[in-house]
TrEMBL record:
Keywords: Coiled coil. Residues 59-138 form the PDZ domain. This is PDZ domain-containing protein. It comes from Guillardia theta (Cryptophyte). Residues 242-328 form a coiled coil.
Length: 419
């Protein structure tokens, strides 16, 4: 987006890690969130459009930076809700970016660099970490945070997998403890039974208490065995839930890749339309030149009334054809706008479906149903896009002699590019 008096850039969304030595990868993933794919930024006089297909796995940390034309530093304009920068809790609006470094590397000062260079340093592979050194202008305090890059699906599955693994580890430890206690109880019970067999009931008064103790130990053994079976059942359910969630994550990633492919095709179609628009502009200029030539010939042949009438009729026909071309071009622009709106609506529905899926994770059946609905919606959208493209390709060559550059420019400005 163009920002008054400066540039803007989206660095993405991911997660943060303050201490790599004291936290496991699952702990780090628990405080992670979305990483948007590499996008672009627009200055006052130009617009930079990166090729998303060249770097499909890049993700950022969720900070919207802005850079003043009079200052040499980039500062935080806004923070994406739920991102790693947001979950960090340290970064605030207006904080200045001092240095950027990969995990384990020495920070590199970025003051004086433009947003394009800063974005390239922040973006990275999903799941990797980046350290940002920030300065708070109000107190001149310099602090450092370590954030994880990653998409929302990746971070959420890491979070759930971490919980499931912790529960599994806890269950395994409990099972081992119960098995140890059961083994000890069995050994003690065997010793009591062996001792009872070697002692005469009439001669040793300790037999009664020993039998009572043996009965109590056997009851404890039975209870511990029941607890052991229950723990094993819970562990099995946790493993099944983890596998089911991993399968659903795979489906979500597949939907996301399909959506990226559709977006790429939409951009290719837009480039093709822009090229056709330039070609139509040249043809229109040629028609205007021919009309000027015809007007000159008309003026030079005023003595021949029949020729004048024929030329006037030809001019009217050309004007009528030009008007028809304009009307058809306007309809084509409307169809193009409708296609872009349908694509944008599909993207919103996909994002809404993903957000809903994250909110109702305990209900896997409902998630599965929502994903199927989204797949059907995407399929209908693809059919609609293919139908629109086929209709545009079947237009006669004569009907493509004009195109409104304002419609193409309007459609182009509606696309948002994020980093």
């Amino acid at each position: 987006n163009t920002m008054q008096g400066g540039w803007s850039n989206i660095a993405g969304a991911g997660n943060m890690r303050q201490s790599q030595e004291t936290r496991s990868p699952f702990d780090l993933a628990r405080i992670s969130q979305e990483g948007y794919r590499s996008g672009g930024f627009r200055s006052i006089n130009e617009e930079i459009r990166p090729d998303l297909r060249g770097n499909p796995d890049l993700a950022g940390v969720g900070i919207f930076f802005q850079q003043s034309t009079k200052a040499s530093f980039a500062y935080v304009q806004s923070i994406i809700h739920g991102s790693s920068a947001d979950r960090c809790g340290l970064i605030q609006h207006g904080d200045q970016l001092v240095a950027v470094a990969e995990a384990g590397e020495w920070p590199r000062n970025v003051e004086g660099q433009n947003l394009h260079m800063i974005r390239d340093k922040i973006l990275g592979k999903q799941g990797s970490f980046v350290r940002l050194q920030m300065r708070r202008p109000s107190t001149n305090e310099v602090y450092e945070v370590e954030l994880m890059r990653g998409s929302p699906e990746f971070i959420e599955i890491m979070h759930v997998s971490s919980d499931l693994k912790e529960k599994q580890i806890s269950s395994n430890a409990r099972i081992q403890e119960l098995e140890s206690q059961v083994a000890m109880l069995r050994m003690h019970s065997d010793r009591l039974q062996a001792h009872a067999q070697t002692v005469q009931v009439e001669e040793d008064p300790r037999i009664g208490p020993l039998e009572e103790e043996l009965s109590a130990r056997m009851e404890d053994l039975r209870r511990f065995e029941e607890m052991l079976l229950a723990s094993k059942e819970k562990t099995r359910e946790a493993i099944l839930a983890r596998d089911k969630f991993a399968e659903q994550l795979k489906d979500v990633k597949s939907d996301f890749d399909l959506l990226k492919e559709k977006l790429s095709l939409s951009k290719e179609e837009e480039s093709r339309l822009v090229h056709e628009n330039e070609s139509l502009k040249g043809q229109i200029s040629l028609l205007k030149h021919e009309m000027q030539v015809l007007n000159a010939e008309l003026q030079s042949k005023t003595k021949n009334s029949e020729e004048n009438e024929a030329l006037v009729k030809q001019i009217e026909v050309l004007r009528s054809e030009l008007q028809s071309i304009k009307e058809r071009d306007a309809k084509l622009g409307q169809r193009l706008t409708s296609g872009h709106r349908a694509i944008a609506q599909a993207m919103k529905e996909q994002q809404a479906a993903a957000a809903a899926a994250l909110e109702i994770l305990p209900s896997f059946d409902l998630i599965h149903s929502s994903m199927l609905s989204n797949l059907r919606a995407n399929s209908n959208l693809q059919q609609h896009s293919e139908h629109s493209t086929k209709m545009a390709d079947n237009e006669p060559t004569r009907q493509k002699l004009y195109s409104t550059s304002s419609s193409a420019a309007s459609s182009e400005n509606k696309l948002q590019y994020f980093a």
